[in-house]
Amino acid sequence: MIADKIGLEIMSNRFQAIVDEMAQALFRTAHTVFIKETQDYGAALVSTSGEVFAASRRYGVLMMIGKPMDDAIRAMGEDVREGDIFITNDPEATRGMATHLSDVYLWAPIFHAGKVVCYVWSFVHMTDVGGRVSGSIAPSSYELVQEGIRVPPQKLFREGVLDETFLKMFLANTRTGEQNWGDMKACIAALTTGQRRLAELISRFDASTVSRSIDDVLSYAEAQARRIISTVPEGVYRFEDFIEGDMAGLGLLRVALKLTVTNGEFHMDFTGTAPEVRAALNLPSFSKDGHWMLVTGVVNWLCTRDPNIAYNAGLVRPLKISIPKGTIINPESGAAYGARYSTSHKVCDVIIGALAQAVPDQLPATDSGQGGILMVATPDPKTSETRVSVVQPVVGGSGGRPMADGVDGTMVILNFLKNVPTELLEREMPDILIRRYGLREDSGGAGKYRGGTGSVIEFETHAPFSTVTARNLERYIFPPAGRQGGEPGTTGYTLLNPGTEAEQDIGKIDILHVGIGDIIRMGTQGGGGYGDPLERPAKQVQSDVLDGYVSVETAARSYGVVIGAEGALDEVATEARRAELRAERGDAPLKPIDFGPAREAYNQLWPSALHDAISEILAPLPRVQRQTGHQALYAEIGQRLEAGTKVAPEDVPAIYAELRAGKLNARRMARPL
Fold it and tell me: 525: helix, coil or strand?
């Protein structure tokens, strides 16, 4: 039990101030667009057991609190001294702290009287860490070694002395070495700031008080989380959704969840989830309880229920995880992880979908589901060196909420990613011209509370041999679902050379080679709508039309609002139109969740029990057999379903036996629909 609650509040605020100052120091001294503008970085204070006891809520990545730091600390053994700074980007050696090679972590111990009190921690997403493509990440990469240089936990500084041999080797294996070192020095500035402030705190309150306060703030957050979870009706809730692996020739990949709510805890069992894949979509969670890339949606929900809740790893202690080894969210060693955020976001959607069954009035409709990063590399015409930069985070809108519209042009889960100013990008990458960047009309799902709009970005390349890569592009097949009568949002699209005779709809980008004058236009998804669209105030729909969020046609079709000349609201025609739509609807109840026609047609062909049967037969197999069996079964069964042949779950073992015996010539992949 916490004895001194006033002292707890004082220390909690002190810790928070330290991490905010660390994050600001990192941000102000960084070199790359990824950090200076997009803000893909983080700073934290970590206990000796590896739990984050303070993380910034104002700057950088807002998902730090569930990062499991314990194995990174354990990897360094007893050889920890004052002046040491450690470095790693290795997902496997850290067992899920790092989740792809582009995230480079630096941390340092805080000593008092010869004993480690805690650690100061930081990370940056590096623009490039080597590998087969500029920017290091491509969805089609299928081995970890293809994604860049791998650094197991080791010392960058030993008792204050830089390991220059290691540093030269590391930077020589990246395309942006000078900028990377600049961002690493920004991390060191953050660590130095944290060390100085913690030394001041220890000198004022003594080390034992600080150590006790670390335990107390974690326990306090845990108690708050359990209190909120206890308000959820106990029971078992199931949900599933699909990662779109078509850019890597993989079709649809299921994420399945059984959420059990009991005794103030969430137990999340992902049995039935698709096996790991030969693509960069794997997420190295190591099935760790409260892992940050699995529970972001739950943490956001907790913070919404209590905006003043303590923000540290205590919040994730009640979140228990069970994931079979060899699945896409708990892969075996050596898998590619670069585009793991597509999978992470889908896990979040699935958890929210399950939780919304228990507390439907507390959770929004589905957001855009896409946390894409659009990268471009061009050769410098004078030096012939490769310039690499992020163009923009290509993020869609968030879902409509139970009390307000979704947020336009961004989503709650990735709201830390900031837009890159066009002027800055064109200065850093002079061979790139931004032709258009704005919100996308008619992309947000209709509802009493409209889904947030997606965005449109169009750019032109003015250099030969340019390469565009994109990762985490999602929901080009199935749109974001609407809730409680709301309609789905839109799917995404990518056009090459739009408006010309050479126009192509190229879908998701993996690695795209472009030349002088080529134009790329991307439209991101809008979030699903929440609530009955006919209950949205007509004047609000009129305002949406005038602002360019909703077209006149959609206003009439989905909202029953008639807009006349020059944007005027025709109230008489609107009343008649809404009466007509209500009559067409009849007594049919509003859908708790509306997946849209494409997903509902797929569900008719592929019921959950059929997916379960496939997962069950593949689960005990070795990795390669699991992967090939997954593709072959979905291909063969998909072919039969499309031909009109019924396939029951109990038919799956016989079909698999025929495939193993070579009696069937299965195609390489299943078509998504």
Answer: coil
